[in-house]
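From the shared-data thread, chain only:
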Amino acid sequence: MNTVLILIIGIPLIEIYLFIKIGSQIGAFNTVLLILTTAIAGVAYARYEGFNTLKSGISQLIKNEIPIYEIISGATLAFAAFLLIFPGFATDILGILLVIPITRKLILRIFINKKKYEKKSEKKNYIDGEFEELGNDDDKKI
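Structure, as tokens:
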């Protein structure tokens, strides 16, 4: 089965289950209030961290360095803000983990190391290069 299809079906099912379980414990009104509070507070904190990432990226550019981590971190913060706006407890937890700098670095390090490992496992059976024929066409006369 396709991974995207599993996510499209699985995430709402998990969120509905958590809504029912948490709602039965703290009440419907408190559940809705908690979802709204996490969305507002999370997006505000994501905005704050986004500005910090932007400042860090600008300082990298001033030093004539490429702000690779800042670009990846900014994209991660945008995804985290989307997760925080999306109603649900599981997405809020993942969004909060991506917004906090320490856990964001850990999560990004896991994904980056995984990509490096996948690239190292691919071995090439050829040597890439260019060639140039030397000599004149007159030498080839028979």
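The chain has five helices and no strands.
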